[in-house]
Amino acid sequence: MLFSSAAPGAAWPAWWTRRWRAARPRGICISAIALETLSAAAAALTAHGLAAQVTQIAVSRTRPAGRLHLAMANNPVFLVTGNCE
Questions:
Q1: What is the rounded CA–CA span in Å between residue 11 and residue 32?
Q2: Disulfide engineering: 27 pairs with which of 8, 50, 79, 83, CB 3.0-4.6 Å?
């Protein structure tokens, strides 16, 4: 499995392609925090013959509120995976 974190934009799919060809992995996992990156990752996987599967991870931090602790949500993180069959 190849793990990657990428910035949105037109240049990153070329980077992904070079990394993919060099590694020849059985699958890939790309992390994304922007919706544009999520879209580009899914498109890149599809263009390379892989089915994209998207998982959203939610993370929260607590902050005190009197005797209680409130969970304050952070931005979601998306994991886009594609496996070679």
A1: 15
A2: 83
Other beta carbons within 10 Å of 15: 14
Find out whether 16 and 4 touch, Cβ atoms under 8 Å. yes
Q: Report DSSP state, residue 84.
A: -
Distances in whole angstroms, Cα of residue 72 to Cα of each of 34, 46, 60, 61, 68: 20, 35, 5, 5, 13
Quote the CA–CA distance of 66 and 25 in Å, as a whole number. 50
Three-class HEC string of 16-75:
HHHHHHHHCCCEEEEEECCHHHHHHHHHHHHHCCCCCEEEEECCEEEEEECCEEEEEECC
